[in-house]
Amino acid sequence: MVAWADEITLVCQMVAGERINGNGFENEPRESVRTVFCNKKSVGYREYFKSQQTGKVVEAKCEVHKADYGGEDVVELEGKRFFVLKTYEVDDDTVELTLTDLRHKDVET
Question: Which domains, from first to last, does the chain contain?
Fold first, then answer.
């Protein structure tokens, strides 16, 4: 296995300076994106099916360096956007991101 050969894009949504524009509509948040190296990991059958019971399906997992991860809630992996469901500190240098589809972001458990 080749380590740190995959890429993930971390998406930070920044609030616009003015919340409401001149026409009275809410301004869209701006995005700041940066791509970092990661290790893609597989989601086991047990974890996948157990997550379906909560309504927040675990679809992907990856490891990133702690120095690269700034707490972003949204990431892009292989052209698809995901919500970071949970993080897990693997060791002093690595954090594991558990990802779900953005549609499951606001599902109550």
Answer: 6-104 (2.40.10.270)
